[in-house]
Amino acid sequence: MSLAVEANCDGLVGPTHSYVGLSPGNLASQRNAGELSNPRGAALEGLSKMRRLSDMGLPQFVLPPHQRPAVSLLKSLGFSGSDAAVIERAWKDAPALAAAACSASPMWAANAATVTPSADAADDRVHFTPANLLTNLHRSLEGPQTTRALRRLFPDEARFAVHDPLPAQPHFADEGAANHVRLCAEHGAPGVNLFVWGREAWGHWDGKFPARQTREAFEAVQRRHGAARAVFPQQGRAAIEGGAFHNDVVCVGTRECLFFHELAFEDRSGMERQVRAAAEGLFEPAFVEISEADLPMADLVASYLFNSQLLVIPGEDRLVLLAPAETRDNPRAFAVAQSLASSNGPIGRVEYVDVRQSMRNGGGPACLRLRVVLTEAELDAANPAQRFAPGLHTTLADWITRRYRDRLAPADLADPDLLIECREALDELSQILDLGGDFYPFQRAS
Ligand code: SUG
Q1: Which one, of 401, 445, 434, lies nearest residue 42 by Cα?
Q2: Structural Rg of the chain based on CA atoms
Q3: pLDDT tens-place string over residues 15-31
Q4: Which domains does the chain have, with CATH numbers?
Q5: Who contacts 141 (Cβ-Cβ below 8 Å, separation ≥6)?
Q6: Orientation of helix 39-55 relative to helix 390-403, angle to 10°
Q7: Any catalytic annotation for residue 142?
Q8: From 367, 378, 393, 422, active-site residue
Q9: How are beta strands 126-130 and 113-116 bridged, if at all?
């Protein structure tokens, strides 16, 4: 077994962060549609969270925002002329398409890809399958640029395999690591991989809200990666109906601990049996389950208790749960968090972090990061300019403060000046993070 750490790769919030109500089944996104957003505040909140983890001694990386507005989408749908003309026409004739082209959704890096560490992969490389995110139009734009971003961050093909996204067919609807959990004795040891799916490709889905992940998508990811000890539990239908559009809204796991809500899995005891069988001889799984009586779904979704980062902190035996501030604000969720910390279980402490701008779009602390377990040699092979450190924090905070607006109404997304501001900002960022002069489509076009 090699020594390994869990690195967090957080999506930097982009300058078009807005509340447009693009995600059915994501109750926060629906409720806050039309509100004023604060892109600068959102990006600084995300940056502070990265700083917090980096200060805890955990490796942290920055994933760059994507180019938005995605004028190429609008052009492919028949709008023509200069970029400014395309945006103006699209907002007049097809505002839903224009809004989708402006979303800053790549910030939710838990949906960027599914990751298999080398300890679990058939060929000893770290494998990534970028998610095709095809259930929602605005998110379906992300796959190709995410692929480019992961190849830039993890360039060494002898150590890293960044696959293409799965075919863009409803059969293979894939939302990445938000529906994947890895349990293990310690990060570098062989793990058990839970691939949690919402519907079967050839089945009939009649839920009120979309089931975004198919079983067949995850079976393909598992085959591509050669991911060992895989189990495929079904998401609870009641959880999806209650607003848990990804499994990470009702479940989080790290090391031997699976922390989840009673309604998270359709067949809860079947899940436990399969995980125990896969972990046999490796580690004893710890199932920490919270009942619907203690935390009803409505409070779960309002508080996002399970959308926390469950962390192994150097020098600490028990795990630390980094929960959103909304958990502290919700009396029932707060009581559950308090009882976790005072019981003798695997979670020793709960801390809170303010990512309220992201939360209003249904993205908590766990949504903002992609976890990548890396050996020391793999860690050293990642792009050093994207590694978070106090110096990079200062540089990025200055860049955000200069480049981002602090208020954005949905109607402002139609402003042609915003397009120019975004491109200038991203051009500068590509230098800060050493992404090369051809990272963004607009750089390749000029
Ligand atoms: O896909 N929200 C995202 C939130 C993703 C949360 N990620 C995880 N649970 N891992 C989504 O629903 C809202 C955008 C808008 O409405 O403007 C949005 O896309």
Answers
A1: 401
A2: 21
A3: 999 999 999 999 999 99
A4: 4-68+103-281+367-445 (3.75.10.20)
A5: 66, 70, 73, 100, 101, 103
A6: 180
A7: no
A8: 367
A9: antiparallel
- What is the spatial distance between Cα 21 and Cα 34, in angstroms, rounded to a whole number? 7
Q: Exposure pattern of 220-233 as b/e (b: 16+ CB <10 Å)? A: bbbebbbbbbbbeb
* 179 CA from centroid of ligand 1 (Å): 14
Known catalytic membership, residue 367: yes
Ligand 1 atom nearest the C-alpha of 29 is 16
What is the H or E stretch that residue 373 is in?
strand 369-375
- H/E run at residue 30: helix 27-31
User: What span, in angstroms and rounded, lies between the C-alpha atoms of 137 and 139?
Assistant: 5
Side-chain-side CA neighbours of residue 264 (13 Å): 35
Structure tokens at 21: 């109500």
Phi, psi of 108 (to 5 degrees): -85, 80
Q: What is the pLDDT of residues 261-296, one digit of tens each?
A: 999 999 999 999 999 999 999 999 999 999 999 999
Is there a catalytic annotation at residue 200? no
Sheet of 191-195, strands arranged across: 180-184, 191-195, 230-231
Question: Looking at the whole model, is its pTM more than 0.90?
Answer: yes
- The 10 Å Cβ neighbour count of residue 313 is 15
